[in-house]
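With this grant's support, we have settled on a layout for protein records. One resulting record is reproduced below.
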Amino acid sequence: MTNTPTTFFGWIIFLIQQYHGYYLQGLLTTLETSLAGTICGCFLGFLVGIIQATDIRAQDNMIKKILLGIPWVIAKIYVTIFRGTPMIVQAMVIYYGSSTVFGIDLKPFNAAIFIILLNTGAYMSETVRGGINSIDVGQIEGAKALGMGYVPMMIYIILPQTFKIIAPQIGNTFVANIKDTSVLNVIAVTELFYITKVAAGTYFRMFEAYTITALIYLTLTLLFNGLLKLIEKYMAGKESYEVLNPAATK
């Protein structure tokens, strides 16, 4: 029989030795689901944000109002539902509802990505909408004066600036999703929290097992937050620029 430790740090070392492979598996699943869900959710958020930022004017013809209004209403309902309910409840409804209502047998891993995707898209859409609305209206009027259509204007003028504005929020969303994946243990996703439940339950050492997990989450968030700050600094460019004498350049 394996000799069990008697001290706190002894149990920490013991659990790491016994379950390091499982912890690594949970860590990889956490990173995979949060990264895939964040990337796909950002694309969805951009699409929904653009729809929400679309200006429907009173003087527009009825066909245009209908074509723009229906997606706007659908986007509004989607954002309201997913911003107004907890992810843990969304996970239960989507995972079990997909098989009960639609007969779709979602695997826990695929369901996790889908849930994070939808949740991220709802929150990012509001960020995108705010970013689009923050662009100076003069740029929009200038693009129209040059004869640019709505789609080229969005692609070449509005969205590149919007992306730069909201880039920090995208990074923060990814970090938040790393932590929020813990709620997906309710649908048997073998992420970090789920693995910890197994390790803790085997020896009934809850404090020690979850301390290990807390340190892993803390390390991840500190690491990615530091990386995001470096990316933000790079995107911001130099803090100061040297002004050259025009005469010296001749």
Remarks:
- Residues 96 and 187 are 9 Å apart (CA to CA).
- The chain has a mean pLDDT of 88.
